[in-house]
Design goal:
three-stranded antiparallel beta sheet, 374 residues, mainly alpha, 4% strand
Length: 374
């Protein structure tokens, strides 16, 4: 009987999702090497992949319902990590590129808690909204959902990491949309955002909450022709040039590429898509986006097969977050969106992002494995 169960687990394991994620990370490591051939970022990425695979299999073969039951503990632990980041402890909390968003673990290295808290927040929201519903969402329930999301967002805002904050918002929106929210509420929220977002930006400018460099990055997108290409428009302009240099099939002269000559800032992280466009061209970018589309489609299929609403909501929240990050990062690379420091999932260098994404994928596989379990 045990042998039959083990065979069934291996048979039902979503190997396609795992294979796609691994392939994208390996391709990303190659592009990281192209971007920074003299650095060790690509080697660290492959080491991170090994650690992430262990975490993915551990989560996949754990009953996701137990994880859901422990969601409040994971959520509170994540909040404590975000608080710890803000306390200036020498050698523990780190400030990099003006953001105090990293923790150093002696003997292991540094990690970014906000990436992991994204997963715990999605699980907490799914736990709250995952019960069987017989009526539409009430204002109280939406307010509680906003509070669950608002606590980590408030702490991340204190880190001055606006890019990470934006990646949290789709998680709540997806969960609310799939939790019997009234369509008139959705329409009203969209109409209200048309007024609130510009008004909020204006207030932010007047109160100096929106910094000068953030204003300039937005102005670069709104009026690229008059942007200072050596000042605030430098990142966007160099990224556009790098993307264009790839042409249809990619540039073969890697020794004199934009990234290797140090013209493109942060080529191994924020602008890895621009490096991909330069080295593999339009065809390579299409194949990469097709791989993402296949991965996301497969995750949606897993969500549809979930035995309960909670598992479905977690997977769809993860899918919503990944789609948003891909859209933002690619938009940054091609000059359609302002530079806000959002990494490209599974491609950009960074152990925290890769590990958090594989933990989320492991949870989705766990749901898939137990779709017939009572």
């Amino acid at each position: 009987m045990v042998a039959v169960l083990k065979h069934r687990r291996l048979r039902d394991f979503d190997w396609l999702v795992a294979a796609l994620a691994i392939t994208i990370v390996c391709f990303g490591a190659w592009e990281i090497h192209n971007a920074q051939p003299t650095e060790t970022f690509w080697q660290k990425q492959l080491i991170g992949l090994g650690i992430a695979l262990v975490a993915m299999f551990a989560i996949a073969f754990t009953d996701y319902r137990r994880v859901i039951e422990m969601a409040p503990a994971f959520y509170v632990f994540g909040l404590l990590l975000l608080v710890l980041v803000l306390i200036p402890i020498p050698g523990i909390s780190l400030k990099i590129n003006g953001h105090r968003a990293w923790l150093r673990v002696p003997g292991l290295g540094q990690f970014q808690p906000s990436e992991f808290v994204k997963v715990t927040t999605a699980i907490m929201l799914a736990r709250y909204f995952g019960k069987h519903r017989y009526a539409v969402l009430t204002l109280k329930e939406m307010a509680v959902g906003g509070l669950i999301l608002g606590l980590p967002i408030a702490l991340i805002l204190l880190e001055h990491d606006a890019g990470s904050v934006l990646t949290y918002i789709p998680i709540l929106l997806v969960v609310l949309f799939l939790s019997a929210i009234r369509m008139r509420t959705v329409i009203a929220a969209l109409a209200l955002s048309i007024v609130v977002v510009p008004a909020g930006y204006w207030v932010g400018v007047k109160t100096h909450l929106v910094k000068n460099y953030q204003q300039e990055r937005i102005n670069v997108i709104l009026d690229p022709e008059n942007a200072d290409k050596r000042g605030f428009g430098y990142h966007t302009w160099q990224s556009i040039v790098t993307v264009g240099a790839g042409g249809l099939m990619g540039s073969r002269d890697s020794e004199y590429s934009q990234s290797s000559l140090k013209f493109l800032p942060e080529p191994h992280s924020d602008f890895i898509f621009a490096v991909t466009a330069e080295t593999t061209g339009f065809i390579g970018c299409l194949l990469l986006l097709a791989s993402y589309a296949l991965l996301l489609t497969r995750l949606i299929i897993d969500a549809r097969r979930a035995r309960d609403r909670t598992g479905m909501l977690v997977i769809m929240a993860i899918v919503g977050g990944l789609i948003f990050q891909i859209f933002i990062n690619v938009g940054m690379a091609v000059g359609m969106l302002p530079v806000i420091g959002v990494p490209l999932p599974l491609m950009s260098a960074g152990l925290s992002s890769v590990l958090a994404t594989f933990i989320a994928i492991g949870f989705a596989i766990s749901v898939q494995l137990r779709r017939f379990v009572n």
